[in-house]
Amino acid sequence: MRWRTEMSKTLTDIAQQLKDANKKVQLIYAFNGTGKTRLSREFKQLISPKVEGEEAQASELADKKILYYSAFTEDLFYWDNDLGQDAEPKLRIQPNAFTKWVLEEQGQDQSITGTFQHYTSDKLTPHFSPDFSSVSFSFERGNNHHEPNIKISKGEESNFIWSVFNALLEQVISELNIAEAVTRSTDVFNNLKYVFIDDPVSSLDENHLIELAVNLAGLIKSSQSDLKFIITTHSPLFYNVLFNEFNNKTCHMLDRFDDGSFALTEKPGDSNRSFSYHLHLMQTIEQAVADQKVERYHFTLLRNLYEKTASFLGYPKWSELLPDDKQLYYSRIINFTSHSTLSNEAVAEPTPAEKATVKLLLEHLKNNYGFWQQAAA
């Protein structure tokens, strides 16, 4: 349980903190449900306040100061499922300045298709309507079997929307890299100052998630303009890859307290580098539990995992992460088993109860300290 501190703030305060930092890249880790997506909206409102009547009149792209990808970006796309009329399922695109530019004006539909198929399947093909107001999907199964007009999964849909955003981001960075504004092919991005990316495509498998992180980092590193980037994620793997890809960046952890206030705490380099080691420890213990091969040294690994997690989260003692009702009991078991020096104890196989304790405490850590959890596909 996290309690309010003297440093706790509102999300508006956090947004101002990010703006005042004036950094090229800011990387933020937060649990699911902490408020990352709401923070993106607060930051957008701070940078580019909505004026009265803006939604009624289509806002011009040249007026935009911030480009952001989040759950709200996905709301621009919605399924048209008229089952009563037996209509073919289509993914509708709400009219907006960004997709209009990247699809209609820049003709990036083929680039979007290539990126989408790379992260999903080359047999899954999007088909844009002539006016780019909707997309349908087909699946080529081979053997001359063609499955048209399918409704793709939520994970595939998220992949598609990211592919649209990625195409737009490539164009934005390319244009703004031309130092002299008068020599750019378009002036619609001249006022753009920030790109805010919240948890892109968390449904990807591990290999593709790593690849996306590397590609995104490479794209951002290619930016030579004053454009600034803020990236938030709940995925330790995505965070770890980005941390290692970027040289000049600021890393934070976003906390939400029980009273609804927040804190954005800068994390030093060593605590960020330990993310990959966290994952390795967890996977090693999980495999031992699954194979029913828990040995005494797994208690040492479990304690190490608790220690590093507590250090990253800012708890003074690792034992504070143990179940509240049996903290002393479990800390004694871990301390005794992991630090045993007597030869007969060191070689003795753990009892069934001790093996069950390893499994219980690993599950407790995963279920209660959410950065171990990956979103389901």
What topology emerges from the helices and strands here?
Layout: H1 11-21, E1 25-29, H2 36-47, E2 66-69, H3 71-74, E3 77-80, E4 90-93, H4 97-105, H5 109-119, E5 124-128, E6 134-142, E7 145-150, H6 154-176, E8 194-198, H7 206-221, E9 228-233, H8 236-245, E10 250-256, E11 262-266, H9 269-273, H10 275-290, H11 297-313, H12 327-338, H13 343-347, H14 352-368
Parallel strand pairs: 1-9, 1-10, 2-8, 8-9
Antiparallel strand pairs: 3-4, 4-6, 5-6, 6-7, 10-11
Helix pairs in contact: 1-2, 4-6, 5-6, 7-8, 10-11, 10-14, 11-12, 11-14
Account of the protein in words:
The structure is a single chain. By secondary structure, the protein is α/β, with parallel strands linked by helices. The chain has 2 domains: about 180 residues, Rossmann fold (3-Layer(aba) Sandwich), CATH 3.40.50; about 100 residues, no CATH class. Helices cover about 45% and strands about 15% of the residues. It contains 14 helices and 11 strands. It has a 6-stranded mixed sheet, sandwiched between helices. Strands 3, 4, 5, 6 and 7 form a 5-stranded antiparallel sheet that branches. The protein is globular.
